[in-house]
Design goal:
The structure is a single chain. This protein is mainly alpha-helical and about 375 residues long. The chain has 19 helices and no strands. α3 packs across α4, α8 packs parallel to α11 and α11 packs antiparallel against α17. The longest helix has 25 residues. The chain is globular, with a radius of gyration of 21 Å. The two termini are about 35 Å apart.
């Protein structure tokens, strides 16, 4: 029995992943929800400002925001992401003994659901869940392109950095699922260009015109009227981010660079531990029936990666950025699997010893973190 489990441990690894996620949740509840909490307080009371959509929606339902709402909203979004991703995997690959290693390498990756649990309440996961919805919905009409544009607008209103974080992946999904499948014509091309321009204009408006228009002391005083416990002023210490210009964010990032560079080899090691998954992705791209599709997918992967490189230069939450980059790769893999192929790409082997060891290691890693590894 033990020998059989060691030879094919994937069901056991799935159970271990579930236990690790519970452990991450327990640890997360013990941490103070600083940034996620203040995002629930900020709304459009003083006009159009950046990072205010979620708070504005919360304000429609409650005048006072309790701390537990961070975990309630974050937990509900996390559960929705889990359920939608499971449905996506079933639709794309199916749940069988042969596909289980692939599911463990993606869903059990410390970059994905486990790290989203650690960053519970942060805005990253909204880009992921909306991208998954686009991978699940029909893509044959302009309604699909319009939905993608709406999702991108929502993400930029949640946080303008989504223009680099998940909008490039959404664009890739639209191109792969709609434009490659339906072909280019004057109507859908013009619609896509206008949608992209609208999202870009909104980003620049949020970035350069979305600064809080009142003194910070008055802003904090307003936030106190929104908190369920005004004595918890420690939860408002990040109010400065609604005043900080892009130049200051970049200078802070480069000032912290010497302290954060030692984490880069750790990120490289974590990426290397996913080698069986990357090998499958490479084989999948190589199996595409059309050379133009292969070139476009490779160009999209480079484009998405370049967007994350720009984020690395501007904001120093490196563990979050590398984790979301990996999630974007996972989602693009699903999009690529929907393209026509000339042959079947071999799945991750279920009984290969080296693959089993890699799978065990990534299962035991609880999360990547927010700024530095772990």
């Amino acid at each position: 029995m033990t020998a059989r489990i060691l030879q094919n441990p994937w069901r056991l690894l799935l159970a271990i992943n579930a236990a690790v996620i519970v452990g991450v949740l327990v640890h997360k509840i013990q941490l103070p929800p600083y940034v996620p909490y203040i995002h629930l307080l900020v709304d459009y009371h003083f006009g159009f400002i950046k990072r205010a959509l979620i708070g504005a929606i919360v304000a429609l339902f409650t005048a006072k925001v309790p701390v537990w709402l961070v975990f309630a909203l974050g937990g509900a979004t996390w559960l929705a992401t889990l359920g939608l991703y499971a449905r996506l995997f079933q639709k794309t690959f199916g749940f069988t003994a042969k596909t289980l290693p692939l599911f463990v390498f993606i869903a059990g990756s410390p970059f994905f659901l486990k790290n989203f649990m650690h960053t519970l309440g942060h805005f990253d996961i909204y880009g992921c869940v909306l991208a998954i919805i686009l991978l699940l919905m029909p893509a044959g009409s302009l309604l699909f392109v319009a939905t993608a544009a709406l999702f991108s607008i929502i993400l930029v209103l949640i946080h303008h950095i989504h223009l680099l974080m998940y909008v490039p992946t959404i664009i890739t999904i639209v191109v792969v699922r709609h434009y490659l499948a339906c072909g280019l014509n004057r109507g859908n091309l013009a619609f896509g260009i206008v949608a992209l321009a609208a999202v870009s204009v909104l980003f620049f408006a949020a970035q350069f015109l979305g600064t809080m228009p009142i003194p910070e002391a008055d802003f904090v005083a307003y936030l106190k009227t929104r908190t369920a416990d005004p004595s918890r002023t420690d939860l408002l210490q990040f109010s400065y981010i609604w005043y900080q210009p892009l130049a200051k964010e970049i200078s802070d990032t480069w000032a912290w660079l010497p302290h954060n560079i030692p984490g880069i080899p750790v990120f490289a090691l974590l990426i290397w531990l996913h080698t069986p998954l990357w090998r499958y992705f490479s084989d999948l791209i190589g199996s595409l029936a059309h050379e133009a599709h292969r070139r476009l997918v490779i160009a999209a992967l480079i484009g998405v990666s370049f967007a994350y490189l720009m984020m690395f230069a501007m904001v120093f939450d490196y563990s979050r950025w590398i984790s979301n980059w990996a999630v974007c790769m996972f989602l693009i893999l699903h999009a690529v699997k929907m393209l026509p192929t000339s042959k079947e790409a071999p799945l991750i082997p279920a009984e290969d010893q080296k693959t089993n060891i890699f799978g065990l290691i990534i299962t035991l890693i609880p999360r990547v973190g927010i700024v530095r590894p772990f």
